[in-house]
Model the fold of this input.
Amino acid sequence: MNVVITDANIFIALYEMDLLQGFFKLPYSISTSVFILEELDDIKPLVEKLVTVIPLTDKDIVAMSQIDWPKPFSFPDRTILYLAQVHQMMVLSGERMMMTWCQENALEGHGLLYILDAMIMNKVYKPKTVCKKLRILMGINVWLPMDLCEEMMQRWVA
Done:
């Protein structure tokens, strides 16, 4: 079972796609930090029942402050990257900069399309269902890599 740590935008995107419950059916042990939970607003009650919240000690906070983080990273984002390093977890994030940081720091990191692919491969959802939901998300979230989304959808329904 893969041990993963997830940022807020993954939870939010999956919720917006009505696929959040399916995420928790994947063969992952899903973790996050309390600071990520605080970013989830209305969906916090749904998520906090299903994830492992990894506590941060004062010692962790001090250790985090010693890392030269890129300026755009929020404190919650820093917490999951730090915890991923300490516990050697895969990072799931929709932020390209976080994926770049993972790559530069020898951490495995993946985004939303990886999760959707895993949902299909693990038979959590049918490919047509995932394609339909992704197409809707593509219409409202311009940050998605549109070419890659199209390529993945073609592969899923082939």
Observations:
- The chain has a mean pLDDT of 94.
- The beta strands are 2-6, 28-33, 52-54, 90-92, 109-110.
- The chain has ten helices and five strands.
